[in-house]
């Protein structure tokens, strides 16, 4: 079995690699031979520490990702999120490669947002509102800045000190950023990204202006909820995988009659994305194992070629 450490995978990953891998994964998930299996969710001996197992197979890849969230790690100076990608050697059923992927997972999640935004947001979208001030929110901003010439980032957070710190960090990285409240952010933004563990809506539907694109990145378990349900009846809705989105994603809060379109079918040209400059588009990312397989394969190929 090949083993790629966290330090090695961190050196190999980039926003461009993640974008290409995740875009291919969106296409793969809508192919008839691809299977995405039921998500397993559990917790550690202390129930506040949680983990999830996502598995899938495609025509050429099979494997799984174990992702964990350990709440006390921040006090220890350790990341709260960690991930391990396992790819099978399909000739014998053994694990062919294990990839420590904590930082890779942050890139992968942000890449899903970037692909969705690139496909659905207006080409002239310049103002980004980010809800959330954690580790992942920073990656979301960086990934979006790779696909749109972001003129300003509006930071919305529950903790004013954390919001100010994030805005300062974004400014240091070259992005013009400022702290604001939820209403002002929604009224100004062309792109809204939510990256929180929220279980109640972060803003009101009437604050969102026509033509806005929204990426909901936080819902990946039952009960999580970032967006106002009133948006569902007026916006065009897209996601990574409809059946998973309805089960554990943002669209678990919709009714069955509402149409939700897989982003992969839009990328392939089988269905339409944004129809007009006035459309409000919503993309829900609940996170797919297929994305982990594709990005894991890219990491493996680059690792082998670097020897």
Automatic annotation (TrEMBL):
One GO term describing the cellular component: cytoplasm
Domain of life: Bacteria
Organism: Yersinia intermedia
Family annotation (InterPro entries): NAD(P)-bd_dom_sf (IPR036291), ODC_Mu_crystall (IPR003462), ODC_N (IPR023401)
PANTHER family: KETIMINE REDUCTASE MU-CRYSTALLIN
SUPFAM superfamilies registered for this protein in UniProt: NAD(P)-binding Rossmann-fold domains (SSF51735)
Name this polypeptide is given: Ornithine cyclodeaminase family protein
